[in-house]
Design brief:
Length: 181
């Protein structure tokens, strides 16, 4: 019986030793994977901005930061029925909450500005509604790798009786947005 206990102890120690030596191996960096496009969703990749996302295939994009719903092909100042503009700048060490607060403070009186916390690809963000602009808008601020991401969805009609195409675009983008580092 003493021999069995000694063998069991040796067997227990040996795997622990080999596991410890395995931990000395340098961990590999996780593979960064953008979402996969489908027949209904196109992949938009912006390497300079450090992100990728999916958007509905029937919409268009002519730049790495602008997606338009039902684009207008003629001249004029209307791009289409609705759009999202994705702006990426240096965060200068600020958090999304600090940027959202600064954007809201300038218009605190007389406007019904609201803020809601959100998470985008693991980063904490802030949705700001009610900021004045050319059209009603829905802005989302988040920070990753000291980059400030500002997504502006226009025109945003929060009191519409049914979900709009822009709300569907918003949901798709927020759910599929991925930082590429």
């Amino acid at each position: 019986m003493l021999t069995m206990l000694a063998q069991t102890a040796c067997n227990t120690i040996a795997p622990a030793t080999s596991v410890a030596s395995t931990n000395l191996v340098e961990p590999t960096k996780p593979v960064e994977v953008c979402p996969t496009g489908t027949a209904d969703l196109k992949l938009l990749t912006n390497t300079e901005g450090g992100y990728c996302l999916l958007y509905p295939a029937e919409y268009s994009t002519d730049a790495a930061n602008f997606i338009v719903i039902n684009p207008t092909t003629g001249g004029g100042d209307m791009l289409g029925d609705a759009w999202v503009n994705i702006n990426v700048t240096d965060a200068h060490g600020q958090t999304a909450a600090q940027v959202a607060d600064a954007a809201s403070e300038a218009f605190s009186e007389g406007f019904n500005i609201t803020q809601t916390v959100i998470e985008v690809d693991g980063a904490q963000g802030v949705i700001v509604d009610g900021l004045p602009g050319q059209d009603s808008n829905h802005q989302v601020f988040f920070v990753s790798n000291d980059r400030l991401y500002q997504l502006t969805f226009e025109p945003w009609y929060p009191n519409a009786s049914a979900p709009t195409a822009l709300e569907d675009l918003y949901k798709t983008i927020i759910e599929t947005f991925h930082f590429m580092s």
